[in-house]
Predict the 3D structure of the following.
Amino acid sequence: MHDLSLLDEFLAESRDHLEQVERDFMAMQDSPQQADPERINRIFRAVHTVKGSSGFFGLIRIGALAHAMESLLDHVRSGTLAMDRARLDALLAGVDALNALLADVHNSNSMDTQELERQLQKLASVGSKDHTQASTQPAPLSIQDGKIALTPEIKSAVPAGHHLFQLSYNLQEMETSRSIGAVSLIEYLQKMGTVLDGILENVDTGLYYHLLFATVLEREFLLGSIHAEDSAIVELQLKEQTEKTVCKENAPIASSKTEAFLKVRVDVLDRLMSLAGELVLVRNQQLMLADDFEGSARSTLQQLDVVTNELQESIMRTRMQPIGSVFSRFHRVAREIGQKMGKEIQVLISGADVELDKNILEALIDPLTHMVRNSCDHGIEAPADRKALGKTPAGTIRLEAFHEGGQIHILVADDGRGIASAAVRRKALEKGLRSEDEMQAMSEQEVLNLVFLPGFSTAQKVTDMSGRGVGMDVVKTTIEKNGGVVELQSKEGEGSTFRLRLPLTMAIIPSMIVESNGQRLAIPQISLEELVGIYDQDIFDQIESADDKEVYRLRNSLLPLVELNAVLNHPEPFSESFRRELTEKHRQERTAAKLRYTNQIANGITEKISSCIAVVKVGKFRYGLRVDRILGTEEIVVKAMHRSLKGLPLFTGATVLGDGDIALILDVAGIARHAGLRLELPALNHQSPEIESNLTEESLLIFRNGGSEQFALTMQSMRRIERIAMSSIQRIGNQEFYPIAGQLLHIVRIDRILDVQQAPDSEEMFLLLPNKSTELYGILCHQIADVQSFRYQLDTHTLIAPGVRGVTQIDNHLTILLDADELSKQPPKASAHVQR
Amino acid sequence: MSSVKDSTRQVIALRLSGRLFGIPVQDIKEVNSDVCIVPVPHAPAEIRGYMNIRGQILLVVDIRGRYGLQEQPIDSKTRLIVFKNTVDEPFGILADQVDDILTLPPSESDSEVYPLADELMILIEARSILSGYEHTIQ
């Protein structure tokens, strides 16, 4: 079934068009014969639009009636028929009938409008029989002396810049001596141009098939490539026709405007998009091999890199649609709700030209509609109430879209009554969504965001507007499914603002590649909160078994643990008894491992043991996913799962990694469900209340450089982390370079910029590649300690040095927060330091 | 095109666990060696996994099970018959060995089995291989 909101949109648009059409017809009532051509044109276009969209929804009666009206209008427009009273009346009757069909659109296909259609057809045919035929079906080709007679219809069907040829084939000869049938011949020709029409001619020498073939190719190129003799290819002249068109076009601006846009099929765009994605993969594979390349091959590769990026961006752009197309519908939504509820609501739109990926935009329609309805319904007060509060009688809903920090921000803000956090608290308590204690620990902001929980609604009464069972939780899940975030801000008495943040496109996503069960898997960065490595004794101390579940003690919270291996190896959703068994098995394994470990320690063997946990989030709910190894981040091109695997809840797609291997993309929500975690109850999450004020929360990359100092860079400033072999570092004087992607990366050692301990010699080190640096540049480090989201307070006084933002305490470690941007400006100093 | 050429049919003959199968040539895009499969956990048994062919991700199916044939390990002789994208979303089936292209005379029946001189060939309708899979996964 078609998306109902699309149908709603079609209905709304069609009614708008018909309203305008009716007004236009009314305006020509007095003297139909002198109707303004521009007016007729406008009517024609409106009826044509209704016809076109009706086909999309399979509304055949609406389509047929609009088609009959359109044919008549076409004749009036082109001047072959004059507008008169009878035609005007019939067209107006058509408008009425269309309105009636639209009013009961689901039954419209079984309504009978054929009488009116016949009448319109008759009126369209008076005095101009040929044209009526032409509009319904093309006139049959006629052939004279072996030459096809050209009609204006044929000429107009030839695309601009194309040549028109008549190709004549002897069918018998083709079949017998070349074994080419007519169908395969046409299929073959269609690859080089367009076969417009064809006609069979039976003469003494055989059965001839004359084809009208339009192509951009010149005659000499056709020779020898289309199985036709020289004499069988005749170019037909189009010239006089083109001249006529030029004369007719008295509005050159309009024509150039139409050329600037082109309707393109979405599946073609999707194909282009996936091809560009594949090109990116090939490029990545080439970049990986770049080390082996010689100079010239390397520069070609760099060019490939640049072109690929641009190509990909351009193709992505073709899928971008202005958000205004969605925003604009809310004028009507607000007006309708306002009328029903006796409110005055105006909608202000800004950033209508901000563009979003088509898929994201489509997914946004429902959530946005819900938020706007919610504002109209619950937010904006009645005019009298507003006056009493000293507000303007008309309420305002602002819809805003803008770019910021590589994301699209969308605001839905109203100046209504706002949401009282006390009311939210009460409601959450009443509905048993949160306990008093839990809410005590929450900030105002966190309390407000409880409205996104399933089963929450602050509405005093359920109206037919927003209380339709689609709650804010659906809004939230829809946004999150599209890689976005939604937040609610509100001040009682002043209004509420929904703030949405969405990625620019969903086709390429940064992901963490992990290994489990012997295969590589990708966790989208958006669902990843942090990575935790637990070592040695901590494995036994911090992982605990509780009945049928395992938990990991992460700082002050208990995190449910899921072992990815177990999930991958067990196709059935975990039953309670299976969870119990599994937990018991893991407990025994841990006990055994602990025994081994303690024995080894006792015997003086210090073999390191470790365990990797990816802390992932599903909405506000977090859990730990135990994986075998963490391999690093990679930007991946998402490919949908094969049709026959769409039902698997564990994966959202697959991707080809840089080395050509395939990784499945994990759906952390699906995994949680499969493993039997209850997502709606983050009861295990006892986060201590925190003072929001001067704490920043940011995702940090924590690393050490061999010495005792701990450093941090914001993840936002990082492009990627590269594990490098120190032996491949190349030196020029004091400067060090590392070849990567065909280019030499300047290596910066922190110990040469700052007064810190020097990195020890080691065969393998890490190179941190900053995001924005204009120079090719990487920061060398010895050991990556952690990547996670921290709340920290920055001390900017204790350590003042170039490239240092300040110091902070992270997990009881003094940590130097570096500024990658600043650091990238340091290289000259770096070498100066070495000389010192 | 099919309406013109349907009089004779060309099929690729292949062997699965010794059994002879035929697939219409017009459904086949290419035959690949170097079969290297990444398994998809929880997929139905017949779906062996994904394979990367020049950046395209392809579903690999082993149809032995439905003919009661024994599963075989993948080795250097294993071939992957890749179907055209007009057949279904990208996928291919495994074959132990690809023999030859045979031209079959026109047939009146749509029979799945075609008798050759010394053995029977099972004709595979590519479009029906994956039908019904969406329903087997919940």
Observations:
- Chain A touches chain B through 33 residues (CB under 8 Å).
